[in-house]
Amino acid sequence: MPSPESRRKGADGGIDGIIYFQDEKSAAKKIIVSVKAGENVGLTMVKDLIATVAGEGAQIGLFITLAPATKPMIAEAARTGYYSSATGQSFPKIQILTIESLLDGSKRPSYPDLAHGGLTFKQTKREKRKEEQLELPGL
Considering the entire predicted model, what is its pTM? Predict the structure, then answer.
């Protein structure tokens, strides 16, 4: 018989969402999102996310919660270290965000954002051609 913990997680294995990003020319990278809406969030839930991120081969995990994180949760997230991007930047491997901070815009997930092109889209070559001015009749 499955343990009560595994029954609560459901078929998704604790994954509430996946965000894909690309920071180099190879395949897209993965962020696992776990959302906890209850007031009783704790260290075990962060450890579950850490295990899921490792098991899924994801680069980053986002723990989104209604209640503020406890000091042990913050310490455990910090202990996982950083994801080093091909862009030369580092991003916390496990990030804890509150729903309130996301809604009021005071915090955002931190990961490589190449939405403006960068390595995601191939640049086209500029066409070089000789310009010639045409004469307009009657002028």
Answer: 0.72
CA distance 94 to 76: 9
Question: What is the pairing mode between strands 29-36 and 60-65?
Answer: parallel
Token reading at 65 = 């919660």
In order of their start, the domains of the chain are 4-103 (3.40.1340.10)
pLDDT (tens digit per residue) in 55-103:
999 999 999 999 999 999 999 999 999 999 888 889 999 999 999 999 9
